[in-house]
Amino acid sequence: MIRRLTGPEFSVLAPELVDIYIEAMGYSPSIRLQRIHVWRREIAQPGFTALIAQLDDQVVGVTYGFLGSSDRWWDKQLRRGFEEAGGATPEQLELLRSYFEVAEIHVAPKLQVRGIGRRLITELLWNAPASYVALSTPEVENENNPAFGLYRSLGFKDVLRHFYYQGDERPFAVLGRSLPLDAKN
In this structure, are residues 69 and 75 in contact, taking their beta carbons and an 8 Å threshold? Predict the structure, then answer.
């Protein structure tokens, strides 16, 4: 079952949701408290929307996002990445004008590739108040993982590749597409 959360519900569930994130991303549990605080602050962002997936009353997936904004850390990271790549293209500049940032989308690893992520992201983006959507995902060789498969099947294209965030040794891909999602998705 997919359920939309209010901001207060999201805040209360943040510890459980961050645990899913840590497991799915392979991060050290030492970041748990810091991420809980960050996630709880996100509910104040314009356009904040959050959903969970439940199976037998257990939370097994989470996604949330909000409107992109030039004063946000992630937007500044995108702009840095565009500059490092030689400057933003007209398409990249257009995306920056009106995008919904999928801040996080994670499914418990043992339940991936069952359609849960697809349901989460399509519900998250239903009626999103922006012209585009953008997200990032760790790079993997030949895009050979369930996340890339999902994003590509939904029409996400490359915005920025082999991008490094401070504090993470892995390269990331930034992907995006126009909204709304096609009815077939």
Answer: yes
* pTM to 2 decimal places: 0.93
DSSP state of 114: S
Q: Which two tokens stand for residue 166?
A: 């401070």
Q: Which long-range contacts (CB under 8 A, 24 or more apart) does 20-29 make?
A: 20/59, 20/60, 20/61, 20/62, 20/106, 20/107, 20/108, 21/62, 21/104, 21/106, 23/108, 23/109, 24/106, 24/107, 24/108, 24/109, 24/112, 25/106, 25/138
Best CA proximity match to 97, nearest among 178, 180, 181: 178
Q: Which residue has the tokens 């996080």?
A: 104
pLDDT in tens, 100-139: 999 999 999 998 888 999 999 999 999 999 999 999 999 9
Cα 178 → chain centroid: 15
Find the DSSP H helices in 65-115: 73-84, 90-97
Question: Among 175, 109, 107, 100, which Cα is nearest to 138's?
Answer: 175
Q: Calculate the alpha carbon distances from 23 to 16, 82, 138, 150, 153 in Å.
A: 11, 30, 14, 19, 24
Degrees to nearest 5, angle at CA 101 with 96 and 106: 150
Find the length of the chain: 185
